[in-house]
Amino acid sequence: MRKNRVVLASAAMVVAASLAACSSGNQGGTQPSGGGNAGGGKPTIAFVQGVIGDNFYISMECGVRDAAKALGAEVTVQGPQKWDPALQQPIVTSVLATKPSAILIAPNDVSALQRPLEEAAKDSKVVLVDTTVEDPAFAVSEIASDNVGGGAAAFEAIQQLVPDGGKVLVIDNQPGISTSDDRVKGFEEAANKDSKFEYVGVQYAKNQPAEAANIVTATLQKHPDLKAVFATNLFSAEGAATGIEQAGVKGQVQVIGFDAGPAQVDALKEGTLQAIIAQQPYDIGYKGVEQALAAIEGKPTEKKIQTGFTIVTMENLETDEGQKALYASECS
């Protein structure tokens, strides 16, 4: 496990959206040459994204592709159009029909994908990237950010931005997603330890920026003295920023966003977001391929790997570290 580094206002600490320029295909992903056992005996790896068009998963795909190229594997990439296990399950079924050597997947739900992935593991090595399931025993490795730590870091950022305390809100995607559940947990645990702050709860935007904006508007009507919002993913942060802007309280309500896509960076520059927590999706993808190939070759694997994250503010945005932390829009 890596030690995380926290930077806020000049210090630094290391979980979805535009269409992936490096992805295409019937199911929202790439179908490069070499499915199944094509490619002259090279191992084949199927990467199933949590959702297409998310800069987080684009960055992860770049890591997957670079690792596959360096280590001699063939890759296909697919993903559902929305974060929905009902859409992801048929993709898993389709992928299994190609009999890949390994599957890298970000499960859309901790319960719904349990049985399908257990079945997948009978024929292919399975690596869980970013998200997980209730019982991941079948997986050769799980690779994700320290999401509990990320939630706690988000609250620490709020403590520094709002030193006098006040009311704080969390906007999440939906219950049952392991990564964002952990972010909420980390934030709640930290907030409940500081009596200067009143935690007004978590609400769910279901990956819809417009719904996140509505949540902010409604919360401000009920709690006009709201001081800060923690948005747990890219879409929630985008919507929260919009809601703050529409309510005319830019600069009065501090917003911490998770993920570092173009929309979050723009909001940071505009002053609507005061900090963004960047994960390391490229590293997650690269390490996922490494673990998959180790399992295919019968070598030892690391059962659980945690990657870090960086808190990006205007203080460090233009530094090498800040720029490196931002998510890709396409793979080079």
TrEMBL record:
What's a single GO MF annotation on this record?
A: carbohydrate binding
Domain of life of the source: Bacteria
Q: Which SUPFAM superfamilies match?
A: Periplasmic binding protein-like I
Q: Which InterPro entries match?
A: Peripla_BP_I, SBP_2_dom
**Cellular localisation:** Cell envelope
GO terms for cellular component: cell envelope
A Pfam family it matches: Peripla_BP_4
Which terms are listed as keywords in the entry? Signal
Name all Periplasmic binding protein domain ranges: 45-299
The record's family statement is: Belongs to the bacterial solute-binding protein 2 family.
Q: State what protein this is by name.
A: Ribose ABC transporter substrate-binding protein
